[in-house]
Design goal:
418 residues; alpha/beta; UDP-n-acetylglucosamine1-carboxyvinyl-transferase, Chain; 2 domains; binds uridine-diphosphate-2(N-acetylglucosaminyl) butyric acid
């Protein structure tokens, strides 16, 4: 890519990766055909589809219709193998539904990844509270229960997205009431809760810190529209600000991005909320903005690299604090190759804005680091080559054609590996 182009025009945001993968897992809870709409065309959807097929489902992903249909049989296999789990850590989200449906789940332990160690202790403790046993054997988490799970009271140490989902999806068909306190409140969690309620689950407190779930005997399949991807929308918002451009992000929901949009306003952008989207405009060099990542409704960790890129060319210095994933600052070493001035110390990064970045070859190590590097490449003088684009494919569908339509000079040199 060659930097220096102002981005202008409209983009459409599709459904959220971090919702649709869990909605696909939730489908396991009901025998019959579930249809998901507004599904993004990303690699992780293919991987999750393959995982569900191995469990006995028939899965059809119709890219042109942005839909996935999942036919769930009466009897499921309950093993998620390492070859798929290692490719996509989110595979762990089948744990709760499998345990609920089969009274057994053998799920390969995902291990660490490029953004940190990412424990499962809260998932496991929650399932134990619902009457399951769980052991770690030969690299697999082997969970089982004698008959139906039973309702229980759980207070999470931290509002973990994954642990909230695992326990919620296990509890919806448990015998009796489950109360989960200090749950994650991300829009993707609300989306899963809404689908579960449509399937016949009884879930109260949706969108708050406490979920109260009254178990039902069984659920029925539904058609559900995936919530819009707030992180993709936020990435486009930063693209507008960093290129001093003007982008209308259709399908984006401003209420899911409040703090991030406020930060852009502080940086000097004009942000307009539209009936079906957000328009972000910028016509001057951005001002540096401090960031502290926190669980929703705090500033999302998944937008942290994009805002480091923005700060790298801003006027002034910014302190960025990462509270969720300890290794997410690894990408600043790549950003430094483009001339960014970033110093890290533990979970803090000090970004001193520079008037210009200069193009160089860099490597994307995870989805959001990749997004941050693309944004930096858009404003770096000369040519930037980003390796490891398959990471970006996992979270952003049609990114390069969209960038080209908005005025970027970017081409793809290799097809993604599947
Ligand atoms: N944690 C534990 N023990 C647990 C669970 C979590 O220590 O039992 C820790 C993790 O190690 C981490 C923190 O709690 O330090 C947050 O983890 P959380 O469970 O909230 O995150 P996650 O479910 O693993 C999801 C998204 C991430 C997103 C985070 C935070 C999916 C597939 N992934 O991860 O998305 O950053 O929530 O919002 O939904 C991405 O899309 O690039 C991405 C990494």
């Amino acid at each position: 890519m060659v930097g220096g182009c102002r981005l202008e025009g409209r983009v459409q945001v599709t459904g959220a990766k971090n919702s649709v993968l869990k909605l696909m897992a939730a489908a396991l809870l009901a025998e019959g055909t579930t249809t998901l709409l507004n599904v993004p065309d990303i690699l992780d959807v293919e991987i999750m589809g393959e995982l569900l097929r191995r469990l006995g489902c028939t899965v059809e992903h119709r890219v042109e219709a942005s839909s996935v249909t999942i036919e769930v049989p009466a009897t499921l296999d309950h093993r998620a193998d390492y070859d798929l789990v290692r490719r996509m850590r989110a595979s762990i989200c089948v744990l709760g539904p499998l345990l609920a449906r089969c009274q057994a789940a053998d799920v390969a332990l995902p291990g660490g990844d490029n953004i940190g160690s990412r424990g499962l202790d809260m998932h496991i403790e929650g399932l134990i509270r619902l009457g399951a046993t769980a052991v770690n054997e030969h690299g697999y988490l082997i969970a089982s229960s004698q008959g139906r799970l039973t309702g229980g009271e759980i207070s999470l140490d931290f509002p973990s997205v994954g642990a909230t989902e695992t326990i919620l999806m296990a509890a919806v068909t448990a015998d009796g009431r489950t109360v989960i306190d200090n749950v994650a409140r991300e829009p993707e969690i609300v989306d899963i809760c809404e689908m579960l309620v449509a399937m016949g689950a009884r879930v109260a407190g949706i969108g708050t810190s406490t979920l109260v779930i009254d178990g039902v005997e069984s659920l029925h399949p539904v058609t559900h529209v995936t919530v819009a991807d707030r992180i993709v929308a936020g990435t486009w918002a930063v693209a507008a600000a960093i290129t001093r451009g003007d982008i209308t992000i259709m399908g984006a929901r401003a209420e899911h991005l409040q703090i991030a949009l406020e930060k852009l306003v502080i940086a000097g952008a004009r942000v307009d909320e539209l009936p079906d989207g957000i328009r972000v405009r910028m016509d001057a060099r951005p001002q540096a903005v401090d960031i502290v990542t926190l669980p929703y409704p705090g500033f999302p960790t998944d937008l942290q690299p994009q805002f480091i890129a923005l700060n790298a060319i801003a006027d002034g210095a910014a302190l960025v604090t990462e509270n969720l994933f300890e290794a997410r600052f690894r990408f600043v070493q790549e950003l430094a190759r483009l001339g960014a001035d970033v110093r890290t110390d533990g979970h803090h990064a000090l970004v001193r804005g520079r008037p210009r970045l200069s193009g160089a070859p860099v490597e994307a190590t995870d989805i959001r680091a990749g997004a941050g590097l693309v944004l930096a490449g858009l404003v770096a003088e000369g040519t930037t080559t980003i390796y490891g684009v398959s990471h970006i494919d996992r979270g952003y569908c049609g990114l390069i054609p969209d960038l080209v339509r908005l005025g970027a000079r970017i081409t793809r040199q290799h097809e993604p590996e599947l």
